[in-house]
Structure formats: structure tokens, C-alpha cells
């Protein structure tokens, strides 16, 4: 999952700092959440209780659909987390990634980072259909993506967080933005930092959000160069641990096999934990963009990798904060955008 839309400026939304106990049965979280405290600093117009009165059952509907979808296919959790990342990094968290091609729209799904790899649309569609039955044209597709990302994290064993809501859906998409703003799997550490900083994210956000790669898989085409020609000299990436390198070669031959897959976290690919960071320390990060967190030697990134590898609760706490930060990238609120009836087309 080459993962990763955020906000340059946050404003205090203390007016909506009350807690509400609308819990999802069996998970103990609702609009208020029982996840780590992340304060009350939200993007203008977003707050956790946005649907408290207009669609109080929204989160329960989302979780019910997710439980069944992830039980059928555990990899779906990573797909939905990635869908939110790839949406937010292109013109903000506005569900632009869901729009189909039309006379006026060039779909972001056809961009290099998304084509033939981004998944989970059918689950978002099912959630939207059920919400429309109960609360017609109330819950935005952008908020569904954010709720699905949180729910997928929880159902995979990861943290919960208080999720600011109230995003509206875009009436445009940006194919060019999807091609240029989503970090590539062969990114250098400086590339990653620059792309995250442009979205208002810092080093802690970069490292913790990279930890989303604790679940999911990647296609050979995203890491094959590490095995055979990392620096243009027909040699493998010397930072790869040797046994891991030979195992990857057996999955990804020099020619062909581009769509073969390997888990991003070979030890616990379906469980959200901190093993991803331990693997990086052992030279077993799958993508270049994973391993450079250790080898890039920039700022306090290496120290963060080590800290998260040692302390899972610390990683969970920062991941929760960073997911809120990412979810706050340029949201459409108020009268901007719309609430789509169908997530794939503008009204």
C-alpha cells in the first residue's frame, strides 16, 4: 500500500467539546470514541458530533457493513485505509477519488498510483446505500471514507480516535493531482518529507501514517527495482536483509509477475500493530519508501521508528492524532461542495 490529503491551518473548535455516548455495540465507541485523547483542535466546520441529530446511527451502519466486508476479506481493511489516504492527498478529503469518468470529470482512479490497485469502492457503495435509506443525502461520501478508515483500523486491532466530521463532497476531481501528490513507493526520505509538508504534516505524521503499512499487500511492480536494479546498476538494494531479499525474489521474478503480491508486514499482515517498525529495523521494509525511514537519516525520523517499534501504545496514540491531521486536509464545509446521492457521480 503506497500509501497516502491534510490541512495547513487548524482552528480551535471548543464549542463542540462535549462528549456523546452513541456507541457501536461491541466496540464501545461512537461520536465521542473511547480512543486516545487528541484534544479539541479541528478544522473549521468539522466536529465529532456533526451527525448526532441528523443521522445518529451513521457510525453503527458503517461498522456493521465493515464487519461483514472485512470478515469476508481481511485485506479490505487496508484497502479502505489506503482509499482515504489517496483521497486526502489530492485536493483534500473530499471524496474526489470516488468520482467516475464523465464529460467533465477525469477520474483519479486512472492515475498511476491508483490504476489497477485502489480497491474498496463496493464497500463504500454499500455503506452509502444503507445510509441513504435511513438518512437520505445527509452523510457525505468524504465522511464515509474517513469513518471507514477508522473502522477498518479498529477491526484490524488498531486504535480508535475521536473523528471530526462534516466534510462535503467535491464536484471536481484531479487526475493530474493524483499523479503528482501521492507519494510514490520508491520515494526518497526527502521526497516524502516535502510531500507531507505541503499538506501541513510533520515528521511524526509521516512516520506514524507510514505505519498504516502494518496491514495490506503491495504488487511486485512497486518494489521490483529493489530486487534487481535499485540504483541503475543492475544490483539489488543493499539495505534489504538477505533472507528477506531471497524470499521476495521467489515471488517477483526479473521479468513478468508484476501483479504478484507480498505483504507489507510479513509477520502480521492482517493485524494492525507495531511490527511494521520492527521489520524496518531488521532491514525488512518492503517498499523503498518504508525502508528510507531508517536509512534516510533525516531529523528525528530514525528515533521515531525505534520508539514506535519499542512501544506499540505510543505508535497507536500518534497514529490516531495523525489520522485526524490527515483528515483535516482542505475539507469542503458549509455550502462548499455537495452531499452526493451517489458517490461516483456529482448530483
From TrEMBL:
<feature type="binding site" description="axial binding residue">
    <location>
        <position position="213"/>
    </location>
    <ligand>
        <name>heme b</name>
    </ligand>
</feature>
<feature type="binding site">
    <location>
        <position position="92"/>
    </location>
    <ligand>
        <name>Ca(2+) 1</name>
    </ligand>
</feature>
<feature type="binding site">
    <location>
        <position position="265"/>
    </location>
    <ligand>
        <name>Ca(2+) 2</name>
    </ligand>
</feature>
<feature type="binding site">
    <location>
        <position position="87"/>
    </location>
    <ligand>
        <name>Ca(2+) 1</name>
    </ligand>
</feature>
<keyword id="KW-0325">Glycoprotein</keyword>
<protein>
    <recommendedName>
        <fullName>Peroxidase</fullName>
        <ecNumber>1.11.1.7</ecNumber>
    </recommendedName>
</protein>
<dbReference type="Pfam" id="PF00141">
    <property type="entry name" value="peroxidase"/>
</dbReference>
<feature type="binding site">
    <location>
        <position position="183"/>
    </location>
    <ligand>
        <name>substrate</name>
    </ligand>
</feature>
<dbReference type="GO" id="GO:0020037">
    <property type="term" value="F:heme binding"/>
</dbReference>
<feature type="disulfide bond">
    <location>
        <begin position="141"/>
        <end position="343"/>
    </location>
</feature>
<feature type="binding site">
    <location>
        <position position="90"/>
    </location>
    <ligand>
        <name>Ca(2+) 1</name>
    </ligand>
</feature>
<feature type="disulfide bond">
    <location>
        <begin position="88"/>
        <end position="93"/>
    </location>
</feature>
<feature type="binding site">
    <location>
        <position position="94"/>
    </location>
    <ligand>
        <name>Ca(2+) 1</name>
    </ligand>
</feature>
<keyword id="KW-0479">Metal-binding</keyword>
<feature type="signal peptide">
    <location>
        <begin position="1"/>
        <end position="23"/>
    </location>
</feature>
<keyword id="KW-0560">Oxidoreductase</keyword>
<dbReference type="GO" id="GO:0004601">
    <property type="term" value="F:peroxidase activity"/>
</dbReference>
<feature type="site" description="Transition state stabilizer">
    <location>
        <position position="82"/>
    </location>
</feature>
<feature type="disulfide bond">
    <location>
        <begin position="220"/>
        <end position="252"/>
    </location>
</feature>
<feature type="binding site">
    <location>
        <position position="108"/>
    </location>
    <ligand>
        <name>Ca(2+) 1</name>
    </ligand>
</feature>
<dbReference type="InterPro" id="IPR019794">
    <property type="entry name" value="Peroxidases_AS"/>
</dbReference>
<dbReference type="InterPro" id="IPR019793">
    <property type="entry name" value="Peroxidases_heam-ligand_BS"/>
</dbReference>
<feature type="binding site">
    <location>
        <position position="96"/>
    </location>
    <ligand>
        <name>Ca(2+) 1</name>
    </ligand>
</feature>
<dbReference type="GO" id="GO:0042744">
    <property type="term" value="P:hydrogen peroxide catabolic process"/>
</dbReference>
<keyword id="KW-0376">Hydrogen peroxide</keyword>
<dbReference type="GO" id="GO:0006979">
    <property type="term" value="P:response to oxidative stress"/>
</dbReference>
<dbReference type="GO" id="GO:0005576">
    <property type="term" value="C:extracellular region"/>
</dbReference>
<feature type="active site" description="Proton acceptor">
    <location>
        <position position="86"/>
    </location>
</feature>
<dbReference type="InterPro" id="IPR002016">
    <property type="entry name" value="Haem_peroxidase"/>
</dbReference>
<comment type="similarity">
    <text>Belongs to the peroxidase family. Classical plant (class III) peroxidase subfamily.</text>
</comment>
<dbReference type="GO" id="GO:0140825">
    <property type="term" value="F:lactoperoxidase activity"/>
</dbReference>
<comment type="similarity">
    <text>Belongs to the peroxidase family. Ascorbate peroxidase subfamily.</text>
</comment>
<dbReference type="InterPro" id="IPR010255">
    <property type="entry name" value="Haem_peroxidase_sf"/>
</dbReference>
<keyword id="KW-0575">Peroxidase</keyword>
<dbReference type="InterPro" id="IPR000823">
    <property type="entry name" value="Peroxidase_pln"/>
</dbReference>
<feature type="disulfide bond">
    <location>
        <begin position="55"/>
        <end position="135"/>
    </location>
</feature>
<keyword id="KW-0106">Calcium</keyword>
<dbReference type="GO" id="GO:0046872">
    <property type="term" value="F:metal ion binding"/>
</dbReference>
<dbReference type="GO" id="GO:0048658">
    <property type="term" value="P:anther wall tapetum development"/>
</dbReference>
<dbReference type="GO" id="GO:0009505">
    <property type="term" value="C:plant-type cell wall"/>
</dbReference>
<comment type="function">
    <text>Removal of H(2)O(2), oxidation of toxic reductants, biosynthesis and degradation of lignin, suberization, auxin catabolism, response to environmental stresses such as wounding, pathogen attack and oxidative stress. These functions might be dependent on each isozyme/isoform in each plant tissue.</text>
</comment>
<keyword id="KW-0732">Signal</keyword>
Amino acid at each position: 500500500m503506497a500509501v497516502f490529503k491534510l490541512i495547513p491551518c487548524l482552528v480551535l473548535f471548543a464549542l463542540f467539546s462535549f462528549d456523546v455516548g452513541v456507541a457501536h455495540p461491541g466496540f464501545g465507541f461512537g461520536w465521542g470514541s473511547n480512543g486516545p485523547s487528541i484534544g479539541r483542535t479541528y478544522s473549521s466546520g468539522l466536529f465529532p458530533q456533526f451527525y448526532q441529530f441528523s443521522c445518529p446511527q451513521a457510525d453503527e451502519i458503517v461498522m456493521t457493513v465493515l464487519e461483514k466486508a472485512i470478515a469476508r476479506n481481511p485485506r479490505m481493511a487496508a484497502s479502505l485505509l489506503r482509499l482515504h489516504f489517496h483521497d486526502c492527498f489530492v485536493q483534500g478529503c473530499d471524496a474526489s477519488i470516488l468520482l467516475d469518468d464523465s464529460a467533465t470529470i477525469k477520474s483519479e482512479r486512472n492515475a498511476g498510483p491508483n490504476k489497477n490497485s485502489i480497491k474498496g469502492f463496493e464497500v463504500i457503495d454499500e455503506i452509502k446505500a444503507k445510509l441513504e435509506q435511513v438518512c437520505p443525502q445527509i452523510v457525505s461520501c468524504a465522511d464515509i471514507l474517513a469513518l471507514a478508515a477508522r473502522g477498518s483500523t479498529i477491526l484490524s486491532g488498531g486504535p480508535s480516535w475521536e473523528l471530526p466530521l462534516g466534510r462535503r463532497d467535491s464536484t471536481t476531481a484531479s487526475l493530474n493531482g493524483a499523479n503528482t501528490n501521492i507519494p510514490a513507493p520508491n520515494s526518497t526520505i526527502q521526497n516524502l518529507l516535502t510531500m507531507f509538508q505541503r499538506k501541513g504534516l510533520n515528521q511524526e505524521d509521516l512516520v506514524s501514517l507510514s505505519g498504516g503499512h502494518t496491514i495490506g499487500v503491495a504488487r511486485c511492480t512497486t518494489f521490483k527495482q529493489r530486487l534487481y536494479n535499485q540504483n541503475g546498476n543492475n544490483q539489488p538494494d543493499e539495505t534489504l536483509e538477505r533472507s528477506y531479499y531471497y524470499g521476495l525474489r521467489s515471488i517477483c521474478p526479473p521479468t513478468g509477475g508484476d501483479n504478484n503480491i507480498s505483504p507489507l508486514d510479513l509477520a502480521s499482515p492482517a493485524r494492525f500493530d507495531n511490527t511494521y517498525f520492527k521489520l524496518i529495523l531488521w532491514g525488512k521494509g518492503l517498499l523503498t519508501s518504508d525502508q528510507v525511514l531508517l536509512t534516510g537519516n533525516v531529523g528525528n525520523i530514525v528515533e521515531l521508528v525505534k520508539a514506535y517499534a519499542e512501544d506499540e501504545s505510543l505508535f497507536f496514540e500518534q497514529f490516531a492524532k495523525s489520522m485526524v491531521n490527515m483528515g483535516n486536509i482542505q475539507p469542503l464545509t458549509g455550502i462548499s461542495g455537495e452531499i452526493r446521492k451517489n458517490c461516483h457521480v456529482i448530483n
